[in-house]
Amino acid sequence: MHSKILILDFGSQVTQLIARRVREAGVFSEVYPYDVSDEFIRNYGAAGIILSGGPNSVTEGDTPRAPQAVFEIGVPVFGICYGMQTMAEQLGGKVEMGHVREFGYAEVRARGHTALLKDISDFTTPEGHGMLKVWMSHGDKVNDMPPGFKLMASTPNCPIAGMADEERKFYAFQFHPEVTHTVQGQAILTRFVTEICGCKQDWNMPDYIAEAVEAIRQQVGSDEVILGLSGGVDSSVAAALIHRAIGDQLTCVFVDHGLLRLDEGKMVMEMFANNLGVKVIHVDATQQFMGHLAGVTDPEAKRKIIGREFVEVFHAESDKLKNAKWLAQGTIYPDVIESAGKGKKAAHTIKSHHNVGGLPETLNLKLLEPLRELFKDEVRKLGVALGLPHAMVYRHPFPGPGLGVRILGEVKKEFADLLRRADAIFIEELRNTKDEQGQSWYDKTSQAFAVFLPVKSVGVMGDGRTYEYVVALRAVQTQDFMTAHWAHLPHELLGQVSNRIINEVRGINRVVYDISGKPPATIEWE
Ligand SMILES: Nc1ncnc2c1ncn2[C@@H]1O[C@H](COP(=O)(O)OP(=O)(O)OP(=O)(O)O)[C@@H](O)[C@H]1O
Ligand SMILES: O=c1[nH]c(=O)c2[nH+]cn([C@@H]3O[C@H](COP(=O)(O)O)[C@@H](O)[C@H]3O)c2[nH]1
Ligand SMILES: NC(=O)CC[C@H](N)C(=O)O
Ligand SMILES: [Mg+2]
């Protein structure tokens, strides 16, 4: 049995990051909603409990509180932001609605020489104070500490930015150690779970796989599962994991909508059907997709058509199976955060992701989403541990609607064929570079591709006049795809790509490079 950390979620946008940091420390953890019962807390067997942040204010009645048992069962407790505020309130301290709200970077003075912070700091002031560079996001603050607590950290705006009752091993911070902007955040959480809670650092990817496999078997029983396999990272890793769990009960459906990259279909079939022994149905739905897309120029209309036709195909394929009760998806945590955010804040829809998530009721399939707690880089590590080739796991993401959102305006087969070839040249040239560390520009960019512009311009080739189409190259660097910088590719490389495309792809006589960031542009052009 692993020792385990219980994380109680008060609704923060970044709760899963806490779980991720604990995983990175090699310790097992699970996230539960804050309102589990006292009995649950007593029986769970946690080596320590972490209380997350959250959008509410403890100064208002009827807002979330931790089960009282959290503070009674004698295990260490770590409060973060709202978690600190409710800890203070529940143990007899005082929280006030702040007059100054603090969002973003702050420097915090570490105080009190606690077991948690000893020798952790980012720099020392001339007066000899240890300082931490942290990330804050709060309005309320603790004004009086509960009995038994001493001051652990402070800022000018927030005199009680950290507090500790070392007797009971209760620790709390107003800032967020789980985000990477808090430089020592991982060190602080690692120390909490190892030295303060006494957990062994014995939890690793093979254990994760074993537990996920067991959970999938429990959930699915003897039912059949279908999975939309794109050849992208997420659905490939999901397929490998589910296949490990239930073998032939899994059927993957790979849809070729005629808008895939060059040789994509061949590659996916070889990899999965031939090398990994996974059952894959290759559906050539080119006619169906292209037929419905004919004459349609509006980007949202195109996306909706593609989403609808995907569902049609999955529907038809699941009907052919005897006992298909589940639709598996490669949904990962950022997808979950984004959709929750949309529900709460009524944000504008910038793009309708084709997402199989918006499935019609009539499909009558339950969802199986074994990756929904993981971040992209963790999914990649999982893929490698499952034996998928490095090159597949570290591919750039490719959107479900494929070249459909990279051919501006009406999608035509002729355009898709030109774009596929231009794109393959760009990617090949990126892969062929190498810096001193042995990294290629493909590795150093997060996503790179060509875009087809259905406008013609005049050129001169071999003394003859040409009047042909334009291709735009796009390459971006990003952590989370929510914001992105355009990649500063070397001019020689761009020149080489441009030369090859114009020389090798008849029909293209001009290549341009996209130098827009996100925001204000988006990564895809439609
Ligand atoms: N051509 C396709 N055939 C079948 N399913 C698809 C296809 N394209 C996309 N999907 C489904 O849509 C889901 C979402 O696509 P998305 O691009 O976000 O993930 P991915 O393709 O698995 O990974 P990546 O982000 O690396 O491209 C996929 O997990 C897959 O289930
Ligand atoms: O599976 C997907 N279905 C979609 O409909 C879709 N639209 C955009 N993307 C990918 O999402 C990331 C952000 O893209 P944007 O900046 O263009 O919104 C980039 O990685 C895009 O490739 C999609 N992925
Ligand atoms: N990030 C948080 O947990 C915020 C806590 C609380 N809602 C505040 O604004 O102070
Ligand atoms: Mg994809």
Automatic annotation (TrEMBL):
Pfam families: GATase (PF00117), GMP_synt_C (PF00958), NAD_synthase (PF02540)
Annotated keywords: ATP-binding, Glutamine amidotransferase, GMP biosynthesis, Ligase, Nucleotide-binding, Purine biosynthesis
Listed pathway(s): Purine metabolism; GMP biosynthesis; GMP from XMP (L-Gln route): step 1/1
Assembly and interaction partners: Homodimer.
Cross-referenced InterPro entries: Class_I_gatase-like (IPR029062), GATASE (IPR017926), GMP_synth_C (IPR001674), GMP_synth_GATase (IPR004739), GMP_synthase (IPR022955), GMPS_ATP_PPase_dom (IPR025777), NAD/GMP_synthase (IPR022310), Rossmann-like_a/b/a_fold (IPR014729)
GO molecular function: GMP synthase (glutamine-hydrolyzing) activity
Coiled coil: none
EC category name: ligase
GMPS ATP-PPase domain mapped to chain residues: 203-395
Annotated NCBIfam families: guaA_Cterm, guaA_Nterm, PRK00074.1
Protein name: GMP synthase [glutamine-hydrolyzing]
UniProt-annotated binding residues for ATP: 230-236
Bilayer-spanning residue ranges: none
Function: Catalyzes the synthesis of GMP from XMP.
Active site: 81, 176, 178
EC number: 6.3.5.2
Reactions catalysed, as given in the entry: XMP + L-glutamine + ATP + H2O = GMP + L-glutamate + AMP + diphosphate + 2 H(+)
